[in-house]
Every structure is written in structure tokens, then in C-alpha cells.
Amino acid sequence: MTDAATAALRRPALGLSVEGLAPRDELLLKSLVRLLDHRTQHQWSFHAERCDLLIAGEGLSRLAAVSGGAAGDGPPPTVLRAARAGSGAHELSLPLNPEVLEQALNRAGAAIVEARQRAEARAAVPILDDEQAFQLTRWPPSELLRGPGRLALATLLVSRPCTVTQLHLRGCAERSVCLAFLHELQRAELLRSDAPRAAAASSAPAPVPALPGLFARIRRRLGLRPGLAS
Amino acid sequence: MNIPPHIHAVAQAAVDSLMREVKGVRAVVVSTEDGFEVTGRIENTAKVAQLSAVASSLAALGSLSGEESNLGACTSVTVEAAHGHVVMVQARHREVDLIVSVVAGRDAVIGQVLYFAKQAARTLAQA
Amino acid sequence: MIEHKILFSGTMGAGKTTAIAAVSEIGPLSTDVRNTDASVAKATTTVGLDYGELTLDNGERLRLYGTPGQSRFAFMWDILARGALGLVILIDNSRPDPLADLDVYLDGFADLIGRSACVVGIGRTETHASPDIDAHGRHMAARGVVCPVLPVDVRERAQVLQLLDLLLLQLESRSLSDLRA
Description:
The structure holds three protein chains of three kinds.
Chain A: H1 3-10, E1 13-19, H2 23-35, E2 43-45, E3 53-56, E4 78-84, E5 92-94, H3 98-122, E6 133-136, H4 150-159, H5 164-170, H6 175-187, E7 191-194, H7 196-202, H8 214-222
Parallel strand pairs in A: 1-2, 1-3, 3-4, 4-5
Antiparallel strand pairs in A: 6-7
Helix pairs in contact in A: 5-6
Chain B: H1 5-21, E1 25-32, E2 37-41, H2 45-68, E3 76-81, E4 84-92, E5 97-105, H3 110-125
Antiparallel strand pairs in B: 1-2, 1-5, 3-4, 4-5
Chain C: E1 3-10, H1 16-23, E2 29-34, E3 44-55, E4 61-66, H2 74-81, E5 86-92, H3 98-108, H4 110-115, E6 118-123, H5 133-142, E7 149-151, H6 157-175
């Protein structure tokens, strides 16, 4: 696998569109986005189904007319205004500078990804049963990890989507402890959820091939407590 | 670290001499032991930095293998490849430890490359 | 004999050699040479690798490799990452831009992180609290990487073992078949 392909697998894919820029500025912008693709922290596409970021030039008179996503679904896109110096408030100065554009795209992309994750977390169903599998969207702050076994539970929620019961069995923690932890994570908007089968298909990482009993042998040698049953 | 000018001059002279006088030599680089280039002649200037870093790693691994084999300090590492050799020789100057790396094609006589590379390293060590 | 590998990487001075020494059954082998980079206040630097090992109870060997920290030795990262079970990244929070440092290793080991497991240890947080652990976690999530990140003092064997415990937990979890509820 090439470095570019590997990085592309990890970078969130976001949609980008341009309106209201002079043709030459628009052409330069599109060229720069392509050229910067190996450096930006997100994979920007002008042909994505939904528009996450709109770069709006002075030719776009009514930002309120902007609609988001396919068929108007989803939140409206974030807008970056591009203009020449002295032309009023804007986030991106013209003529475009590659480094400035890269930084602006990274900032906007990070904000969009975080907002998307918060929205997913808010839409989470109550943690009542095993019809949902949960996974962390980022490593929790230290204050959420205080409490017996929480470090291990959080690590399990990083590795693959887990239902409450899977977390209880794999993490060797009481079901009530798992539920309490999941509730706190959900309140902190750190969880995403999906039906277990869908979660297994889409977001679980590739299984790690290993000799049977290898990790248990490593644990014994290091003097660590036994891990998950294989 | 700034390499003292007199060491730099001797290194440059060593590079020029090896390129000029040893048949089959394609490139010569003098670098610090921790992988920074001092001077060199190679087809692509970007490769000078690469070869400096690679030579640093290989020389260090050579030292490790020599020690682990109870053979003493490593003086040089030779890599034999399909189309030639890369020879890396340690040059231990009192102010800075250097590595002389010589890339030679199949038309070079490896013994001759080693001889002149070691001679260059001795000259550098005494600069 | 079957051999396995865990990789330690991270910034110069973050404690890779120390971490390996804390758990290795042999005194770690190292390829440290005098540092000539005046911008880094460290007398020596690793230019090849650090090496430690553990023998498991069936004779298999677990090799612990430490990589050079500086990105000009990234070719060694690729070589050492081949076949590794997982990666421990150690970051020195006293450096000017620890988040930028973290990016270097997230990028440099993207392939290994994607196919395996990773844990990040942040050192010197007791004297350099910013960026805090949460900031590191957020930064990694924005880069598409979610893995354990915690403060660590690699001079304490127990803390190094905790990093390895969390690495193993991820690997075990991903090697399980679906657990029937």
C-alpha cells in the first residue's frame, strides 16, 4: 500500500465547494487543494455527495441561499469567505497562499469533524440494551477515566464497537459499572453508536492475526493480569 | 554542530580525490556520525542527506554487530548490491566523529575502493 | 523459534531506551552516538535502533525495538515497523510543540497504526502540563486516530507496563471472534 493510500484511509473525507470566486481564483483554489491533498489533515473533494465547506467569494451575494448536502439534508456547510485585503471581513485572503489555505482547511476540517461527532453523539439512543454497539470518537479526558476498570473499558471502546454485554464480558467489569461509564461518555458526547452488525461491518478495524495464546504468554512474561479470553 | 572549516576543507579534498582517482566511484559523502552531511558529490543533492542518514544507521548497526560478536570496534561497513558496493568507513576526529561513504559501480575494484576510502578516513581523523 | 515485535517510537529524549530497559530481560542494545544537532539539548541520539527482548514461556521471543526519533531516520521506521504487533509512541511534553511532534509519528507510522494498535504516552506532564492529555486526545481524533493516551514516567516500570497492558488489550479485542452476548 502506498503512503498516500494509507493516509487516505485514515483522513476524514469532506466535501468542498466554491461559489462567487473569479474564474482564475477558483481554478487556482482547485489546483491548490489537489496539490495540498498529501498534506491536509482531511481529504477534500469537490465531488462529494454533501458539501461540508463552502469557500465563498465576493461574487456570492446571499450566503443564506446556500443549501447543505444532497437534497438539502444535513446541516448547512461551514463557510469560509475569501476576499482581497480591504474588502471587508473574510477568513481567506486573495490571492491564495498555499500555506494559509492548508491551515484554513485543517482548521475548518477539524471543526466540521468535531461538530459531526457531537451531532452523532447527541443522536445516540439510550443505553438500555444490546441493540446498539458503542465506540469512542476520541480518547476521554482524564476525569472520566477515574474509577476502577475505566481505563480498560475505554481501551475496549477504542478497539472495536461493543454492546453493553460485550463490554461487561470483555472488560470483566460489572454491567452496572459499564452502563454508568457509557452514560458518562454519552453525556460528554464521546460515543457513537450503531446496530451491532452494522458496526461490525463498517467501523471495526481489521482483525489482528496472532498465534493462539500469544497475548496471554506476553502478559504472563510481563507479570500483567490476564486479559480477554480468546 | 558547525563543522570547523579546516575539517570541512579536508573533507572536501577527500571527496574530490576519491571521485577523481578511484575508478568506478559514483558518489562520495562525508557525514557526521549522527547523520548530517558535511560535504559530498552525488548525482542528486537530495540524496546526499539521505545517504548521510542511512550511513549513520548502518555504521551504528555495524558497531553493534561488532561489539555483540566480540570483534571489537567497527571500522567500516560494506554493502554489496546488484550493481556495485557502498562502503562506509568511520573517521574518528577528536572534535567530531565522521563517516566517509563511497558508492562504487561494478567496474570498481572493491579492494581499491576500501583502501582509498580508509586512507581518506585516516586523513580526516588527523585533520 | 517464533519471534514477535513491539515498537517504541517518539521524540528524541522522550524515553524510548528507558522504556525498553524497564521491561527487557537483557540490558538494551543501543546505537546512540554523539548528537551534533545544537537545536536539541541532548548529548546523544539514536541513529539505528534500541533493542530489548523477552523470552516467553514456550520459547518464543518478544523483541522490543526503539526507533530513532528524528524524522531523517524515517527509513528506519519503515524497516522496523514491518511485522510489528503494535506501537508505543512516547512524546516529550516539554518540547516546544508536542502536538506537532505527535503528528510526525502519526504520519510516519500511519500504516502500522491502521492495521495494528497504538498507545501514546506523554512524558514530563508534571512539569509541563500544556498541552494537556485531553488536548492530545482531541488532536489525535481530528487526525482520525483514537487510541489510549496517558501521562507516563518511563522511569517507572509499572507505568511502562500499563502502556503495554493497554496495547495488548486492543490487540486481544481485535483478535476475538464475535463474542456471543
